[in-house]
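Bit of a strange request maybe. I'm writing a small parser for structure token strings and I need a real example to test against, not something I typed by hand. Could someone generate the tokens for this chain?
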Amino acid sequence: MAAASFDAFRRGQVNAFVSGTGIGTLAGLIGLGGAEFRLPFLISMFRFGALEAVIINKAMSLVVVASALPFRTGTTSVTDIAGQWPVIVNLLGGSLLGAWFGASWATKLKSETLYRVIAVLLVAMAVVLLIGHGAGGTGHPMFAGPAQMFAGVAAGFAIGVVASLLGVAGGELLIPTLILLFGVDVKLAGSLSLAVSLPTMLVGFARYSLDDTFTVLRRNGRFVAAMAIGSVVGSFIGAHLLGIVPGSILLPILAVILLVSSVKLWLHRRT
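Reply from user aminoacidic:
Good idea to test on real output. This should exercise your parser:
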């Protein structure tokens, strides 16, 4: 009996590492935190509760974002990223506040309600992924001057709320926003989204740390460590695949994964 339990424990760690690597690769390739694809695994495969899954998801997304940003500098220079600091500050003006409020709302929702909210948001992410990433980054921003600044803060707030509710980095919304609202090139948008995501996620993470459910990270320390290591390995691989794998093939596949995952979560019941 003890041997069987130990084997199951080991399999759990191996599965955590493998799933972390796979999701980290996809995330590092596009410029995301990968949480939208990780969340269904945490709930359906690893059997975590909705809020527990969101908190672990947030921690893993932080790992991916923090590692993917420097990994991507081989393709997108630090100078190019730093040169867009007004855009980064503009979006952060709303996303930091949105992240705090989103995390506060998530901790107050019932598990079944949170499952349904997550399912709906996953569908929205799939739609944005297909439509938003189809933009080529023409260099023609949608607005200019004060209108652009106001739109940036508003968009940042909405993205911050969604990011905290799902425990995601918010890249699926940030990248289309950067392309359409600010006219940023699609490859640069991927790196800028990581630069905006990191402080936004830290704020949401800080808010979650005030909730008792936050102890899930300590109680599942080895699982979290295995998935984190896999996530770093994956983000390294994904960042070096940037420009090789065509988005026209990859993005529709990711969108289908999101749609299937949303259906599973909508029908999910805790046992």
